[in-house]
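**Discrete fold encoding**
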Amino acid sequence: MGQPFFGKHSASNPFFGFFGPTKDAKTASALQGHLVAMSGEFVGTFMFLFLAYCGHSMVVDQSPINQAGPNGTNSATTVVYISLSYGFAVLVTVWTMYRVSGGLFNPAVTLGLIVTGNIPLVRGMLLWPVQILASMVAAWIVGAIIPGNIKSVQTTLTPTMSVAQGVFLEMVSKLRISTEGRNADVAAALPWNAMSV
């Protein structure tokens, strides 16, 4: 039979030699670690936002028209259901993916972890485009499979909140989530961080 076109997959010969052998095993293991984290972030971010957008869209479509809140906003029960759909979606996906990629799923959280030194700059720069691409793919698929307008899942500020206030509120909340390191038991702290999102 003859030799296969590509070599055997190993730490010194990643991707079956498609990219050529690496210089040393340390470089190969770093590359493999980044690729595993990137693929885990893509799958996790996609699943989180897919589940959250589906839940959000379902709640908005099923909410009664006559129970709107002030200024045409959603009623309080609708907002609670939307919050629960995002909370449970992030709880499930972070709980399943945090051992693979860290369960960041948000470029703002990734930036917070880069600034605080919890993840290396190279890893953060590799995860950013993956997270953004996964969010775009999730929105596209939800828009394709669920009837109605995908813009119903778009988050907007209240009429009384300025853009600067919204940015500051988002920044403070993400900083709080990304720097939650007081509890040494990650598995015990994870559900509470997920629900605080």
Q: What stands out?
A: The CA atoms of residues 172 and 178 lie 10 Å apart. The chain has one domain: 24-196. Confidence is low (pLDDT under 50) at residues 1-5. The radius of gyration is 20 Å.
